[in-house]
């Protein structure tokens, strides 16, 4: 009796993987890509590197019906070296009317390099601080689309979107990804018929004639590009996050939504507290819980994770989860370089997957992982940690297949390898590391936290899955082996020469009569490795990785004596050989393909005929993966 089991791609679909999800997912990535594309030709202004900004008071007067801004920006900064002038980034399309230090007017110049250069009244020595107040106005530069006026169903709306270097188009700042301001106060004055929103917690609203000034305070470190405002006839929808415990007290979720779609939007947002409470349970307290979380609806596709308030162009649950997760992975701890982008996008997308696992159940999570694996393995290569050259290409940085999909699945495989307790504790330790928290991190720092908590050496894992490319294809052969045992043999080939062999814990499921199942995880460290495992029933079937915990493609699992009988009936002749070798098969078995690999796991040839010439191969042992009409086996031969 011959029994074969082939692992087919899962075809199940669920609500979270509808066409709408796919459209929103790719629109979100496109939006993040468009934002990042502005950085490719940007260079940090060397004239702003001699000071640290510690505080901004931002006073903006705007009208969403008018493309204009009038502002007063009060900035406190600390000298990193002696300085007689201070330079801010500001488009020269905005006009500065005065600069004050206390009651003293300071001289200044706006130059052709979009700089505001202020002459200080005396030398500011290293380590000392000063405060300047800048008054300006005008129509912001439109090239970066950082300041937008538009409308929704005829009602004016204004929003800002500064990521990563658009802040200078609407206010004088230090436009530097690596300088997080300790705290800000934002005062927005707009016609009183409108509602204004910004980062942090609303402090007050003051009516002054036909205008209303709304004051927000944000007391956490924040880079200039995450500071944002929006103004329109918002309807406010309040929710509550937090678990109501000492470690997780309640905090407000404040949603600024369009009134014309309020009912449907509230339905979509109903899941928000469940998601944020899940994230708190898994990776620790919401990073800005002393203030708020929330959403502000705006007219751009996708979303933008402004600290404490995500600007949203849609309400798909996966988008809500992704932008929310960025509050931990991206806002609290930010990737230190573009080469480490997977620390932002991969970890965040995996958090979105955890929503599927916990709210929709395991079968839907398996489907989610299967979709990711299908995307990843649609091409044979792709490294997570980018090279210097790749980090200059926005399409590579924001590759949905690599940074998002592979990043999320590699994160899952790390969880699979470490176990849940160590994995989630590692994430919490990473987020709470004083050297990284509300700052920046790179891949080795993330790896160090996961190694420390697990006690594992993860060099091989990170080298194979983060720094190098490709994925394995497994051949699993199993048969009953005496009373209460099964013998399982595992081989693999690699899709990319950069990794000859992926050392991984390989999940195998043995099945029996009446729906019995027995799962084993086998530590696969070499080709041809044999495992004898106890089984509490007689196996009648076998599956490779039924829950889709490994990135792989075209893997097969064969149960019974079939593989072993097949292996006995097929041979390579002559062996050793120096030129021609033949796959010898019985007449009732057809050869479909013979793939030749060297001992590094590199594919060096593919043949469809039984006889082929190997004279061009290097001397030594080679492995042939033989695919036939009755299964797949591996044979070795020696090239002389």
Q: How is this structure best described in words?
A:
- The structure is a single chain.
- With 640 residues, the chain is of the alpha+beta class.
- Helix 3 packs parallel to helix 4 (317-325), helix 5 (342-360) runs antiparallel to helix 6 (362-376) and helix 5 (342-360) packs across helix 8.
- It is 23% helix and 37% strand.
- The protein has twelve helices and 37 strands.
- It folds into four domains: 15-36 and 331-467, Orthogonal Bundle (Neutral Protease, domain 2); 46-232, tricorn interacting facor f3 domain (Immunoglobulin-like, Sandwich), CATH 2.60.40.1730; 471-563, Immunoglobulin-like, CATH 2.60.40.1840; 570-639, Immunoglobulin-like (Sandwich).
- The protein has an eight-stranded mixed sheet, with no helix packed on it.
